[in-house]
Amino acid sequence: MFLILNNAARYLSTQKINKNLYLISNERSMIDPASYKVDLGKSKALAVMPTWLMAKEKHIIKNAKFYLDYGFDVLNIRLQMWQLLWPRKGTQVVATNALKFLEVNENYFPIVLHGFSIGGYLWGEVLVQMEADKKRYQTIVSKTSGQIWDSLADITQIPIGTPTAMFPNNKFLQSTLRSYLIFHMNFFDKIATCHYRKSRTAFFNNMLGTSMLIIGSKVDPVATEETLRTLKDHMEKNGTKVYWKIWNDSQHVSHLFKYPKEYHEIMTNYLQDVKVLPPRSTK
Questions:
Q1: CA angle 274, 278, 283 (to 5 degrees)
Q2: How far, in Å, CA of 253 to CA of 114, rounded?
Q3: Rg of the chain in Å (alpha carbons)
Q4: Which residues pair with 10 in a beta bridge?
Q5: Is the four-CA dihedral 145, 150, 154, 158 of positive or negative sign?
Q6: Residues near 43 by Cβ (< 8 Å), separated by ≥ 6?
Q7: pLDDT interval class at 254 (50, 70, 90)
Q8: Which 8-state DSSP code applies to residue 156?
Q9: Could you give the angle at the alpha carbon of 233 between the alpha carbons of 266 and 276, nearest 5°?
Q10: Dist CA 216 CA 221 (whole Å)
Q11: Given the DSSP bridges, would you call strands 21-25 and 8-11 parallel, antiparallel or unpaired?
């Protein structure tokens, strides 16, 4: 397919690796379907992008565009509703496959995380597996230069954010699903909720050791300013440098769409600080 960027036609390839992993790139590469190995032939920067539930393709591409313009590839990780509800057969399998991709593709360097909403929980499941075998995954840690978290949803917000994502225009179905999710998290603690807690703990441990850019809004009922500040305070207390941007009026995972210029400036400044992007010319 072709995408219009900066008034010029540019080839954009979105390749499905499996039902949860998609590689977005300015060029089409051969991907081995069994090993997930990408035939790069050269080193290339990679943005790992776990997105929100029910994210539309056009919104994923709009977020990926920034990285494509700088020559990155983007690994988009998508989570389905049932995978969120049943972690052992769902999210944890997705996490294993994402790790498999990162492990076999040594030529991707540096790596940047840019996650959204429930993608933080998904990445926490990745970190749980990495913590269980730190020596094996040390190369991934050493190649990761920074993390950007947009509208990061805490596990306590699952009953709040998920119904809106699934049924944005149906209040009755939102209410019905919200009631079920509250029941699900209480009744299925040993096969669901305990894994949400472990993921949260691993995320807060920040095994990657990099700084974080946290982005949110004062009016977001899913990724509340309070929960984001809890993460910020914890990270700073434990020595992690945190970059922080809270808007007054933008909605959940919609900050880029409301403030595109400022959003990209914040991203650029952060990625320059962590030396993923070259510094701006002083001329």
A1: 130
A2: 12
A3: 18
A4: 3
A5: negative
A6: 107, 108, 109
A7: very high
A8: G
A9: 35
A10: 11
A11: unpaired
Structural element, H or E, at residue 3: strand 2-5
CB 14 within 8 A of CB 78: no
Which pair of structure tokens corresponds to residue 280?
Answer: 């701006």
DSSP per residue over 88-139, as a string? TTTHHHHHHHHHHHHHH-TTEEEEEEEEETTHHHHHHHHHHHHHHTTTTTHH
CA distances from 91 to 53, 173, 179 (A): 12, 24, 22
What are the backbone dihedrals phi and psi of residue 114, each rounded to the nearest 5 degrees, phi first? -140, 95
User: What phi and psi, each to the nearest 5 degrees, are found at residue 136?
Assistant: -60, -40
Residue 140 identity (one-letter amino acid): I
CA torsion through residues 241, 208, 254, 216, sign: negative
Token couple for 118: 């429930």
DSSP 61: H
Q: What is the pLDDT of residues 158-175, one digit of tens each?
A: 888 888 878 888 999 999
Judged by phi (left if over 0) then psi (alpha if -120 to 50, else beta), residue 127 lies in alpha
pLDDT tens digits, residue range 47-93? 999 999 989 999 999 999 999 999 999 999 999 999 999 999 999 99
Closest CA to 165 of 81, 258, 223, 94: 81
123 contacts: CB under 8 Å, gap ≥ 6 = 50, 113, 115, 203
